[in-house]
Amino acid sequence: MLEYVIPAPKEVVLKEGSFGLQDNLTLFYTSDVERIAEMLARDWPCILKKVDLPLKMLFLGNQLTPLTQKEVRHKEGYTLDITSDGVQITALSYRGIYYGYTTLLQIMEDVKSLPAVSIYDYPDLDMRGMHFDLKGAMPTVEYINQCVKLLGRYKINTILMEYEDKFPYEKYPQIKAPGALTVEELDTIMNTARDCGIEVIPLLQCLGHTEYILRHDEFAQLGENGTRQMLCPLKPGSLELIKSLIDEILPYHADSRYFHMGADEAWLLGYCPECSAYAARHGRARLYVDYVKQVAAYIASKGKKPVLWDDMFYKEKGFELIEDLPSNVVLNLWDYDATEEETPYVRWNSRAYVSKQWIDRYPAKIAQFGAWLEDLPEDEQYMIKKYKSGDKYPLMGHPFPWMKKYLEEGCEVIGASAAKGAGRFSYNSLFPDFKKRFINTLIWAKRAKEAGITGVISTAWSKYSTVAPPTESWESAMYNYIASAENYWNSNSTKESFDRRFSMNYLGANTKITKAMDYLEQGRLRRDISYLKAAELLLTETKDVVVKHSVFVDILLDALHFEILSLSVDNQFWEVQPWLYYSFSKDALRQEVNNEAKIQLNSLKERLLQWQEDSISLYKSIMSATEAEELVKTKAAGKLAFIETLVNKL
Ligand SMILES: [Zn+2]
Questions:
Q1: What distance in angstroms lies between residue 269's CA and the mean position of ligand 1's atoms?
Q2: pLDDT tens across 526-561, in order?
Q3: 141: buried, middle or exposed (CB in 10 Å: 19+, 13-18, 0-12)?
Q4: Element housing 214 (H / E)
Q5: Same domain, 277 and 380
Q6: Residues 166, 270: one domain?
Q7: Ligand 1 geometric centre to CA of 325 (Å)
Q8: How many domains, in total, are found in the chain?
Q9: For residues 79 and 65, is the Cβ–Cβ distance under 8 A?
Q10: Does 553 fall in a domain?
Q11: For residues 584 and 602, what is the distance between their CA atoms, to the nearest angstrom?
Q12: How big is the CA angle at 266 (ends 262 and 269), to the nearest 5 degrees?
């Protein structure tokens, strides 16, 4: 299985010979890595023996025989040596040993004779993160635990945990949604993460996106100008409430160096009379910073680094106010659209600015919600040019220009790509973009490594707000999570190389799964059922041979069936919509044609209802019935309503 390891190890030297896994082997381990020794002893029963050595080590064999002298330089790097005498992993840290172990696990899957090899491996990025967004389509705790373990095995070392209304709040239990985690459940997730060397960073929205708090009447008076999207930054109760929630969350995250306070998309900033007057006097950016700096200072006083999403600084043109934040503040720069090494647009104000020069060159480069760079005031153009840099400005430039700006301001920077929940299909489909997401995480990995920032977290939005419908399911994006793990470890990875390994590694069989996923995407993009039918054929073949994680294939097939039905409804609309002009009831001939269309539409309705039932029962294997129903029914609701409207009109 060596050739299918994910992430691909950096240096692999194959040797002559092999090591046979036999009964009664001894696993020698040094202090601090006993947990990993116990895990390995569960995978291959052996006698555990602790030894005293200056480095961290696992050695599986008959007797302790050092196999390598190679020095590990990277703090999360490891060596893995297999000879006829045994298997040895050395590293400087718990994580290093754990990563050696996870590589070994992938090699020894289903084989008893391990090939002799010498591996030296280390990551390109220090932080390799995944976002767990519990606000929508939340899986069962069992699934979450499996997912944590799985990601650990692919060497993800950070989880950004967005609890929203699923944290076991005690002081304000009314914030908890049905199905929120219990204290015991949260403990099991934290223990699993700790075993896998994963740091779990909590995320608590402190300003905007606080619908999950403000939806409850007792907090409504804290809403900005009486709304329920964001807290009013000038009402003292807002800061007090957030501090109190921070206090509740902190004890569960003693191991985390960071605390993420959200603070993005505060769309209603400056609306109420007090905020409006404040903004008029000091500026909207000042209104924002004067609030968030208090939250950040509180987090810093608890010994954590406060992390903020970065968008309000470029939306409100408030870069110069970053220095007001505590010195250990971390900016989390998000960009889910970059899919090229250089991009034509820059995020500024609330827009994506591009050059007018694209009009007669290649209109596809013009951002849908964009504005023109050339229309900006000169000083702003000058600054954008400075940070976007590159010879090709204004056409192309650095995909994340503000990264350099934040680094100059002395901030630690973490990037944020997207693995799911970031596309125009997210509300209406049950699978994410695959290709675009792969490239987005890869571009991030390359630029993060080049700039030397801490790392990148792949976001996986499950809802855009508490009151929004769910996006695609967690499992449907598993390819994207594992691809993130690959790319953050190997920033020079390629999709071809990853695709070659994914099926074997994740499904345990050589299948055409990535080809099927490509057809599935193309069918959706091109609105072409032929591609979807081709995908269906490949997925059905795949389903017959997978030995692991078959739910992934089931979920893709289910997503595909919905896509076909959804497209069939649209096609039917195209067929009948010009007829809506006529009044059919007066014309017997047309009524006949019309009845035929009604029969087609009603048959689609029946198929959609059947799909809905099947789909809910499938999703119930990984989430509660309530969550499964919401996920499935929100996707079908629009199409069902559309059919009903058409049938009534015809
Ligand atoms: Zn206000």
A1: 7
A2: 999 999 999 999 999 999 999 999 999 999 999 999
A3: middle
A4: helix 211-214
A5: no
A6: yes
A7: 21
A8: 5
A9: no
A10: no
A11: 18
A12: 140
Say whether pLDDT at 580 is over 90.
no
- Structure token pair of residue 447: 């630029």
Residue 41 exposed, middle or buried by CB count within 10 Å (0-12, 13-18, 19+): middle
Taking the centre of ligand 1 as the mean of its atom positions, its distance from the CA of residue 282, in whole angstroms, is 14
**Which neighbouring-strand residues pair with 50?**
29
- Nearest-angstrom CA–CA distance, 258 and 201: 6
DSSP-derived secondary structure for 239-300: HHHHHHHHHHHGGGGTT-SEEE------TTTT-SHHHHHHHHHH-HHHHHHHHHHHHHHHHH
What is the three-class DSSP state of 16?
A: strand
Two tokens at 548? 């692991």
Question: Mind listing the pLDDT tens digit for each residue in 231-285?
Answer: 999 999 999 999 999 999 999 999 999 999 999 999 999 999 999 999 999 999 9
What is the band of 596 on the pLDDT scale with cuts at 50, 70, 90? Answer: confident
CA 287 to centroid of ligand 1, rounded, Å: 9
Question: What is the domain range of residue 6?
Answer: 2-121
HSE-CB for 140 with a 13 A CA cutoff: 10
Regarding whether 580 and 621 lie in a shared domain, the answer is yes
β-strand 346-348 against 351-354: which pairing, if any? antiparallel
Residue type, 241: L
Are residues 105 and 159 located together in one domain of the fold? no
Query: CA–CA separation, 332 vs 334, rounded Å?
Result: 6
Tokens matching residue 487: 């790319």
d(CA 343, CA 327): 31
CA dihedral sign of residues 397, 403, 404, 406: positive
Let me know whether 331 and 470 are in one domain: yes
Residues 394, 419, single domain; the answer is no
> For residue 519, which amino acid is it?
Y
Q: How far apart are CA 278 and CA 234, in angstroms?
A: 9
Q: What would you report as the CA-atom Rg of the chain, rounded to the nearest whole angstrom? A: 27
293 alpha carbon to ligand 1 midpoint, in Å? 16
The per-residue DSSP string of 520-580 comes to HHHHHHHT-HHHHHHHHHHHHHHHHH--S-HHHHHHHHHHHHHHHHHHHHHHHHHHHGGGG
Write out the two tokens for 625: 């019935």
Between the two ends of the chain, the Cα-to-Cα distance in Å is 59
Same domain, 109 and 239: no
273 CA from centroid of ligand 1 (Å): 7
Task: Sort 108 into a burial class: Cβ within 10 Å, 0-12 / 13-18 / 19+.
Answer: buried
Ligand 1 centroid–CA 62 distance in Å is 70
Looking at the structure, do residues 312 and 377 belong to the same domain, yes or no?
A: no
Are 313 and 320 a contacting pair, CB within 8 Å?
A: no
Beta partners for residue 87, in sequence order: 60, 82
- Please say which residue of 460, 475, 493 terminates a domain: 493
Give residue for tokens 């994207």: 480
